């Protein structure tokens, strides 16, 4: 028990002295270029517009033809949902038709979510 | 009854790569342009999305996006002494149909010809002597040199966002690129795709043999890219569904992604789908094509569209058919050598392979771009000495993994039964441990390989079929044996567990098995109106307002995939129209 406590307190200490790397919206913007190849504001774009997506319901845009799994997903795109989806789209909404297998570096995910927050 | 429509500045027949390029350039120059496309409107956002697009049976096996042979096909014979029969199921070649044409479902290999491919007859005569070229080999120079076309190759590569590495930048040879290529003014727009496992094995073996490998130039974007039209490609996801499929990831260059979004939103352009062009209305006296007659295939109604300029941008067979049925130029006759129309039909020596098997290596054949190859050009064109070989030309040799979907990809060592338990066991054992070394060879014109109109068989519109007279000739037979031996040497240098002997195109040409859709010629470009159909600007010698674009203008076929040259020639021709022809309509070259 004592050992466990020591381990926990070291972890807490480590968390206190090592500041969590701040999410970097500039880096997120650079990463977003890959998303923007499809997520554009044009009528024939392959992906739905992501302007103001934070807080939006999933499958909510009238002018985009979503897949059935996305129509049924019934999510609200809050930060947590976006993070999970960007990290592994098929795990979050199985069967959705975005041809992208996810960002594998958690820092990249944080940065891109930070950028999406500003993308209105 | 034919409805006569109001005249437009220009009409474009077929809206694939060439039709899209020409229509875009002409509308930018201020012309009102109508695009006539016999097939459906296809756009990636509607037609190429997951999960539907990954239907191997529908697209690859049942050929969803190709021309329907029940509506239009060609008849075929090996020589002028035989009666031709219609090809009732397309196999050897698969012409596209629909918006974007074959450009929406190609693999994406985007080459430039070698400088010596451009001036082929002159080059071979200078190097091997006046009498070196056999009289039945009717090869010609392209009437436009590599250096003249270089900026147009460059522009088309930028439109497509080609991924690759230069091997000759303004004369400086660069290892890792194709050092045999002509001088490039610019590096490729995107870095090469990451090398496949098969490519790494190829590179190591070729290094041992003293050959220099390079990444095949690929219109599958290696990174996010915005082209000069301001249109964006995404990075390839290596899904392995490329040839015969539209791209789900927005990563494969196509007219649909790289040009059409701008063209379709331009009020000067009007796209008419299901508009199947039946014939050209030719005024022999005025030497002009006055109009284009087409059928709306939804209603059966016939329309006549008068136009100031007519651009023929259909596939090779239809470009020939429409000129032959209208009588624009004299039909080629192999017995006299007279006439130019239908002359120098060429193909390609495709699908020559050596398969290598590695018990201890994982190849992942399902995971690659369409154009994802590691190449050598040491045995291509006239890059090696042909003295004493008895043939001219060569082949590109490549290894890579592409489109390794399991319905059509089942490599097994030679000697394996064709079906049953042993075949199943061998398939399971080797699927992930094998790949092909492949070669695609030049097809040089032969006096008796040509196109004309079939006297018996007709298509759905009642027009005669194009009759193809074609066979592999002595030059082809010697070429593929030479290349097969080279591939076997490379294969053995890989130290595989097993190697199958070279399977090359021996014997007669067959229309059954797929080889390539790299059919060329029949309306060839040249300097002499007696032996060519269009001049160096792709303007018909016999109708100054008719421009013919596409591989039907190649005087012979090099070993490369033709799309790079097709795109470059389209921009070259479009510039001649917009800079010169519009201001002063008439022949751009003295007749």
Provide a compact summary of the structure.
Chain A has 6 helices and no strands.
Topology overview:
The complex is a heterodimer of chains A (120) and B (591).
Chain A: H1 2-17, H2 25-36, H3 68-73, H4 79-87, H5 89-92, H6 106-118
Helix pairs in contact in A: 2-6, 4-6
Chain B: E1 2-4, E2 8-13, H1 17-28, E3 33-37, H2 44-47, H3 56-61, E4 74-77, E5 85-86, H4 115-118, H5 120-128, H6 146-160, E6 168-169, E7 172-173, H7 197-209, E8 214-215, E9 225-226, E10 232-233, H8 255-258, H9 260-264, E11 269-273, E12 275-283, E13 288-296, E14 302-312, H10 316-326, E15 343-346, E16 349-357, E17 373-376, E18 395-400, H11 421-430, E19 434-441, E20 450-458, E21 464-469, H12 474-493, E22 498-499, E23 520-522, E24 539-540, E25 543-548, H13 563-581
Helix pairs in contact in B: 1-13, 6-13, 7-12
β-strand percent of chain A reads under 5%
CA-based shape of chain A: globular
Strand content of chain B: 15-25%
How far from one another are the termini of chain A?
50 Å
Which residue ranges of chain A are poorly predicted, with pLDDT under 50 across at least 5 consecutive positions?
A: 1-19
What's the helix count of chain A? 6
Most strands sheet of chain B? 9 strands, mixed
* CATH superfamily descriptor of chain A: Cytochrome c-like domain
Would you kindly provide a written description of the structure presented here, covering whatever features stand out?
The complex is a heterodimer of chains A (120) and B (591). By secondary structure, chain A is mainly alpha-helical. Chain A has a single domain (23-118), classed as Cytochrome c-like domain (Cytochrome Bc1 Complex, Chain D, domain 2, Orthogonal Bundle), CATH 1.10.760. Chain A contains six helices and no strands. Chain A has helices at 2-17, 25-36, 68-73, 79-87, 89-92, 106-118. In chain A, helix 2 (25-36) crosses helix 6. The model of chain A is unreliable at 1-19 (pLDDT under 50). By secondary structure, chain B is an alpha+beta fold. Chain B has a domain at 1-48 and 92-162 and 256-345 and 516-591: FAD/NAD(P)-binding domain (3-Layer(bba) Sandwich). Chain B has 13 helices and 25 strands. Chain B has helices at 17-28, 44-47, 56-61, 115-118, 120-128, 146-160, 197-209, 255-258, 260-264, 316-326, 421-430, 474-493, 563-581, and strands at 2-4, 8-13, 33-37, 74-77, 85-86, 168-169, 172-173, 214-215, 225-226, 232-233, 269-273, 275-283, 288-296, 302-312, 343-346, 349-357, 373-376, 395-400, 434-441, 450-458, 464-469, 498-499, 520-522, 539-540, 543-548. In chain B, the strands form six sheets. In chain B, strands 1, 2, 3, 11, 12, 13, 14, 24 and 25 form a nine-stranded mixed β-sheet that branches. In chain B, strand 12 (275-283) and strand 13 form a beta hairpin. The chains are: A mainly alpha (120), B alpha+beta (591). The A-B interface holds A 33-34, 36-38, 40, 42, 44-46, 65, 67, 95, 97-101 and B 43-46, 49-51, 224, 232-235, 237, 239, 248-251, 261.
């Amino acid at each position: 028990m004592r050992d466990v406590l020591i381990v926990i307190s070291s972890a807490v200490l480590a968390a206190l002295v090592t500041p969590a790397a701040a999410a970097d919206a500039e880096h997120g913007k650079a990463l977003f270029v890959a998303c923007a190849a499809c997520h554009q504001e044009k009528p024939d774009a392959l992906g739905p517009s992501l302007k103001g997506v934070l807080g939006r319901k999933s499958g909510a845009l009238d002018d985009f033809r979503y897949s059935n799994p996305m129509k049924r997903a019934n999510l609200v795109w809050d930060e947590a949902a976006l993070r999970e989806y960007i990290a592994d789209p098929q795990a979050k909404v199985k069967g959705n038709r975005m041809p992208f297998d996810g960002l594998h570096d958690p820092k990249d995910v944080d940065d891109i979510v930070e950028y999406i927050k500003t993308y209105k | 009854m034919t409805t006569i429509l109001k005249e437009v500045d220009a009409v474009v027949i077929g809206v694939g790569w060439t039709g899209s390029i020409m229509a875009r350039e002409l509308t930018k120059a201020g012309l009102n342009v109508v695009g006539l496309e016999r097939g459906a409107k296809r756009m990636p956002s509607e037609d190429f999305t997951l999960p539907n697009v990954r239907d191997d049976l529908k697209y690859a096996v049942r050929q969803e996006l190709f021309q329907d042979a029940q509506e239009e096909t060609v008849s075929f014979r090996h020589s002028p002494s035989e009666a031709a029969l219609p090809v009732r199921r397309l196999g050897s070649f698969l012409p596209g149909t629909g918006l974007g044409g074959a450009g929406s479902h190609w693999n994406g290999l985007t080459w430039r010809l070698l400088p010596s491919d451009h001036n082929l007859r002159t080059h071979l005569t200078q190097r091997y002597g006046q009498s070196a070229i056999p009289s039945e080999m009717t090869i010609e120079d392209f009437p436009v040199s590599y250096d003249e076309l270089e900026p147009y190759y460059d522009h088309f590569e930028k439109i497509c966002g080609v991924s690759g590495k230069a091997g000759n930048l303004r004369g400086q040879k660069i290892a890792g690129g194709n050092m045999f290529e002509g001088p490039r003014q610019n590096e490729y727009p995107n870095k090469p795709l990451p090398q496949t496992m098969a490519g790494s094995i190829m590179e190591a073996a070729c290094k041992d043999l003293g050959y220099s490998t390079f990444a095949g130039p690929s219109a599958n974007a290696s990174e996010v890219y915005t082209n000069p039209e301001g249109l964006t490609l995404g990075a390839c996801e290596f899904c392995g569904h490329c040839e015969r499929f539209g791209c789900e990831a927005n990563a494969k260059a196509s007219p649909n992604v790289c040009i059409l979004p701008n063209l379709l939103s331009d009020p000067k352009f009007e796209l008419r789908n299901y508009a199947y062009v039946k014939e050209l209305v030719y005024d022999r006296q005025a030497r002009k094509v006055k109009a284009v007659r087409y059928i709306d295939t939804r209603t059966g109604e016939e329309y006549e569209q008068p136009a100031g300029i007519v651009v023929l941008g259909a596939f090779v067979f239809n470009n020939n058919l429409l000129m032959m049925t209208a009588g624009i130029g004299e039909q080629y006759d192999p017995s006299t050598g007279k006439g130019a129309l239908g002359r120098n039909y060429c193909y390609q020596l495709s699908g020559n392979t050596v398969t290598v098997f590695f018990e201890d290596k994982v190849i992942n054949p399902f995971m690659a771009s369409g154009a994802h190859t590691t190449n050598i050009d040491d045995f291509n064109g006239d890059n090696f000495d042909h003295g004493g070989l008895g043939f001219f030309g060569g082949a590109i040799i490549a290894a890579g993994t592409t489109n390794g979907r399991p319905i059509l990809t089942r490599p097994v060592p030679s000697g394996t039964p064709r079906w049953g338990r042993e075949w199943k066991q061998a398939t399971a054992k080797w699927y992930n441990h094998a790949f092909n070394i492949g070669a695609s060879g030049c097809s040089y014109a032969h006096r008796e390989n040509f196109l004309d109109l079939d006297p018996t068989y007709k298509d759905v519109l009642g027009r005669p079929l194009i009759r193809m007279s074609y066979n592999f000739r002595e030059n082809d037979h010697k070429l593929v044996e030479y290349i097969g031996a080279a591939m076997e040497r490379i294969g053995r240098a890989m130290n595989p567990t097993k190697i199958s002997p070279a399977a090359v195109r021996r014997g007669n040409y067959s229309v059954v098995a797929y080889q390539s859709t790299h059919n060329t010629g029949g309306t060839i470009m040249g300097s002499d109106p007696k032996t060519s159909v269009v001049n160096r600007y792709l303007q018909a010698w016999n109708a100054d307002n008719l421009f013919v674009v596409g591989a039907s203008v190649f005087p012979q076929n090099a070993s490369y995939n033709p799309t790079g040259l097709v795109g470059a020639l389209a921009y070259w021709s479009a510039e001649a129209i917009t800079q010169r022809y519009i201001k002063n309509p008439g022949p751009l070259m003295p007749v």
